[in-house]
Write a structure and sequence with these properties.
Blueprint: H1 2-14, E1 21-25, E2 31-32, E3 37-38, H2 45-57, E4 61-62, E5 75-79, E6 97-99, H3 106-124, H4 132-150, E7 153-155, H5 167-186, H6 190-201
Helix pairs in contact: 1-2, 3-4, 5-6
């Protein structure tokens, strides 16, 4: 921390009229960025105090005003010209349906598509006065019905995911949580306990 603060001081002294931009993940959960005070003892007091003193010394402002990991703000973006920062408002994600095509029964889909084809020709095959829009509406509604009834789906989460958590890591965490909290508590089965211990080691 001393090295980083010294670099900030040298940059300020060398370019006194320049705008300072300082960003990164400092992993300092004990700093309350609303009041620029120390709240907790997870890290050494001197580390937090050194950064806060540097912020006050050069009149820096923390632009990140929302939690970035659980309830803590670990990412920073400091500047001595906060008026130049456009602070976007992160809107809440809307739940959307995700179709799980890999879990769909292909034979059922083909049978439903074949039935739809026959129904379509029975309905519109001998009608010369039917508009293209009417036929398109029927096709669209029928295909969406097949999709909703024959393809499994799930709702997307409304929380923002972290870019460093990929699908593999997410599945691994979910597997470990299940093994760690659910099975061992519900049963004394030796196999479940072995899975629990294996998940802890992996």
């Amino acid at each position: 921390m001393e090295s980083m603060c010294s670099t900030i001081r040298n940059a300020h002294n060398k370019f006194k009229k320049s705008v300072l931009w300082i960003g990164g993940d400092l992993n300092l959960p004990n700093i309350n960025w609303t009041s620029n005070s120390i709240d907790g003892h997870q890290n050494l007091h001197d580390i937090n105090a050194t950064l806060i003193e540097t912020i006050h010394e050069f009149n820096l402002d923390q632009a990140v005003n929302c939690p970035t990991r659980q309830e803590k703000t670990l990412d920073i973006f400091l500047s001595n010209r906060p008026s130049l920062i456009n602070r976007p408002v992160r809107s809440k994600l809307v739940k959307r349906k995700i179709y799980l095509s890999k879990k769909a029964n292909i034979d059922n889909l083909r049978a439903s598509a074949t039935n739809f084809k026959h129904d379509f020709f029975r309905k519109f095959g001998n009608q010369s006065g039917t508009s293209a829009q009417e036929m398109w509406d029927y096709i669209k509604s029928s295909l969406l019905h097949i999709l909703d009834t024959k393809v499994p789906s799930k709702l997307a989460s409304t929380s923002y995911s972290q870019p460093w958590i990929d699908t593999k890591a997410r599945k691994s965490n979910r597997h470990a949580d299940i093994a760690r909290y659910q099975k061992p508590k519900k049963t004394s089965n030796l196999a479940c306990l072995l899975v629990y211990k294996s998940a802890l080691l992996n």
